[in-house]
Amino acid sequence: MIGLVSALFVSDATVALAAExxxxxxxxxxxxxxxxxxxxxxxxxxxxxxxxxxxxxxxxDFDSETNVVYLPADAKIATKLNMSPFxxxxxxxxxxxxxEILSQIESAAVFREALKGDGAALDKVAAAFDAxxxxxxxxxxxxxxxxxxxxxx
Length: 153
Hints:
The protein is α+β, with helices and mostly antiparallel strands.
């Protein structure tokens, strides 16, 4: 799953994320390293029908703890730690991957049932989305998914 999600431009949303989730200095085998809060699912997807449904039903929040992972701010250090580097604007393949999976959820019959008010269907849609976000949350720190470009050296 290398590559999945949309751009975080310097905006009020980015500033709010930095205020709520400030950078951390963490001791690693390479010494003290700055880690930045990376939204797993960026706000650029706030207009996607799946997310509009989940946000409207209080099943998702862009600023929740479950949608944030800390990644090294420096790509060279991230590469040495075998992690994805932090990216204010996630790379295209990251954004495309998220878009593709959200489109698969949107095209499923269960999503149409959830839109009609079926609570059980809504729970299934939320579970499918949570599985995506959880997999991404685990893959980013392991370097199995890249939000930013790794150091080429």
